[in-house]
Amino acid sequence: MNSRTIANGILRAVGIIVAIALILYFFYKIQSVIVYILIAAVISLIGRPIVIFLRRRLKFRNTIAVVATMLLLVGVFVGIIGLLIPLLVEQGHNLSLLDITALQENIEELYRSGIAYLELNHIDAEKAIKESKILSNLDYSVIPNFLNSLVSGLGSFSIGLMSVLFIAFFFLKDSNLFEKGILTFIPNEKESKTKRSFTKISDLLSRYFVGLFFQILILFVIYTIGLLIIGVKNAVVIAFLCALINLIPYLGPLIGAFLMLFLVMTNNLGDSFNDIVLPKIIYTLIVITIAQLVDNFFSQPYIFSKSVKSHPLEIFLIIIIAGLLFGVVGMIVAVPSYTAIKVILKEFLSDNKTVKKLTQGL
User: Fold this and answer.
1) 234 with 88: CB under 8 angstroms?
2) 56 touches 184 (CB < 8 A)
3) What is the per-residue DSSP string for 195-227?
4) Smallest Cα–Cα separation from 239: which of 84, 89, 93?
5) Under DSSP, is residue 9 helix (H, G, I), strand (E, B) or coil?
6) Over residues 304-322, mean pLDDT
7) Could you count the other beta carbons within 10 Å of the beta carbon of residue 218?
8) What is the pLDDT of residues 327-361, one digit of tens each?
9) Element (H or E) spanning 334, and its range?
10) Does the pLDDT of residue 270 top 70, yes or no?
11) CA-to-CA distance for 245 and 249, rounded, in angstroms?
């Protein structure tokens, strides 16, 4: 091997590295567009069963079926916003009247009552709590800022929303548009396997997102019934918002529970803390517990086993790993991405022993 061959090899390697770096930089600069495309792809997967139903059962033309589906999805989105705006306005008004000092006094009174109860049972909890300095470290002023930050972030979604809807319309109109774009970069001998992979992925993810819809619906019904029984104002809106947040794996239920308790508490500002607010908080905790038990032991296992053909433990590990690597966004996209990867591996590496074990249910 002469020096010229070595130099050419080095130049070729440097060229490949530079090309990869430029491609990655390009993707980094257009990351928002990539996000729009991915969200539009998800919306098209959700709307796909509706389009198929309108075309096959009601004999709609493809364009009319797509337009009707998009109008339905937009109507649902507008309805959600219409439900949330009055709640945000009311909670903002309640928070503007919030007396931080009174809230602190109520919580400290609850703390003293709990300590007195524990002392009757010979439990020395006060010493441990004082040493931890929990009450002195609590920042009560953070509560009024919660919804303000939520409202301020809504304006930045307008351009993105229009872009997503525009892209989703064409994905629904031409269901193979995304596939055709990918096939442009696929060698001819791999096209048939790639097409089969796309078909399988579309079917699995459509069922997965439909399953998520029913998961939200079940939580929404349980939350609504529970909050109505308790007598919480804006029960339907609060139930829907907290059920929707549950889509975030593992963190979602905690965020939703905190949000529900927060909204229930601020709905009753000015009422007696011990006689009205505290009992409603306790009853709300019971409702949250019942809903999460149903979700964890019925809804989620059914969705994962029937839609994406994966074991719940397998899904749990994938979500945790994705969360550690990519944060909350990684946890949300972990299951669809993992499902797509499994389908591709089964199609292209079906003879591999490990792949056979992972994809035996597909």
Assistant:
1) no
2) no
3) HHHHHHHHHHHHHHHHHHHHHHHHHHHHHHHHH
4) 84
5) helix
6) 76
7) 16
8) 766 777 788 888 888 888 887 777 777 777 777 76
9) helix 312-348
10) no
11) 9
